[in-house]
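Module 6 notes. Inverse folding takes a fixed backbone as the condition and produces residue identities as the prediction. Think of it as a translation problem where the source language is geometry and the target language is the twenty amino acids. Below is one complete input and output pair. Work through it position by position during the lab.
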């Protein structure tokens, strides 16, 4: 399955949107663009917690479920793999004990709904656990969530990432259940002062504007980071997916393209699959206004091959 995940892209700021920034409409044409460019996978972040009851049975809004169905269907119809997660569940990270029943109820509903769906649909238990969801707490919560998924769907590929916002530093503390259908996922945004320069949601990020990326020392740092993650995966016999990596639009395009190409080729060399953050908004590889790829980023991700060789 990890080989099928291959090269992916996030449809970020669509079903996960917080309502405070640019949003991606999930139009059919964007799925066409992704498939035609030669991507294998779409990662579809979903903010279920904003569309479900706050008291038992924590029912997911049927209209929202249909929007997710449509996104999954659009990806599968084009022969893509699709990763659906639980995104931006900040209430769970703030109060894990209180929110656990709701988190499990969300997964019970999601797993039941898609139990008969193509094996090209994968689940990712939770985006970027943080805050009170410490490594130890997260290990217990993820085992519970996986058990809920398995009760409805024993064969589905499930992705699970470490606490600490899926950073690779937290990998050693991740307790991966014995399951056989798991892929480990990490997010890679280092150096953060480069990838998040000018990002409005990061305090002080304005001070990092102008930071460029390239050269032997910068490359060596990325190489060392990813080698560490790869070694962790090898020791445990677990495939790795870089579920998010990308550089914000305020960085200069030449540096963004260099960093993106370097991380991507290094990941592939180490046998990792990946998904770029993100398709069409503030990290966008695709320019919604021009309805065209930003060529330096498209090339960094997919190389010279122009159209699908699926
Ligand atoms: C968040 C986005 C953010 C991105 C890069 C994602 O996990 O959902 O809101 O833009 O990480 O920081």
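Target side of the pair, the amino acids:
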């Amino acid at each position: 399955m990890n080989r099928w995940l291959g090269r992916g892209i996030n449809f970020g700021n669509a079903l996960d949107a917080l309502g405070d920034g640019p949003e991606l409409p999930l139009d059919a044409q964007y799925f066409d663009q992704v498939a035609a460019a030669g991507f294998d996978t779409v990662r579809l972040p979903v903010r279920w917690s904003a569309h479900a009851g706050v008291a038992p049975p924590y029912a997911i809004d049927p209209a929202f479920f249909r929007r997710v169905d449509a996104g999954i269907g659009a990806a599968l119809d084009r022969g893509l793999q699709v990763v659906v997660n639980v995104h931006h569940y900040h209430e769970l990270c703030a109060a894990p004990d209180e929110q656990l029943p709701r988190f499990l109820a969300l997964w019970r509903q999601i797993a039941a709904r898609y139990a008969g769906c193509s094996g090209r649909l994968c689940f990712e238990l939770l985006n970027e656990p943080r805050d009170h969801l410490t490594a130890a707490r997260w290990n217990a919560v993820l085992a519970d969530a996986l058990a809920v998924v398995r009760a409805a769907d024993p064969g589905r590929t499930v992705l699970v990432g470490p606490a600490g916002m899926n950073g690779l530093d937290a990998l050693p503390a991740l307790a991966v259940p014995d399951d056989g259908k798991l892929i480990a996922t990490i997010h890679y945004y280092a150096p953060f002062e480069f990838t998040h320069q000018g990002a409005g949601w990061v305090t002080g990020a304005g001070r990092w504007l102008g930071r460029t990326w390239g050269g032997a020392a910068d490359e060596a740092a990325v190489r060392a980071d990813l080698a560490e993650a790869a070694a962790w995966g090898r020791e445990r016999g677990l495939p790795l997916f870089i579920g998010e990596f990308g550089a914000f639009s305020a960085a200069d395009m030449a540096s963004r393209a260099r960093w993106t190409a370097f991380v991507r080729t290094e990941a592939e060399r180490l046998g990792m699959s990946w998904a770029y953050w993100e398709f069409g908004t503030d990290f966008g590889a695709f320019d919604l206004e021009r309805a065209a790829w930003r060529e330096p980023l498209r090339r960094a991700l997919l190389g010279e091959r122009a159209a699908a060789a699926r």
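Reference fact for the lab report: Residues 2-189+239-244+273-309 form a domain with the TIM Barrel fold (CATH 3.20.20.80).
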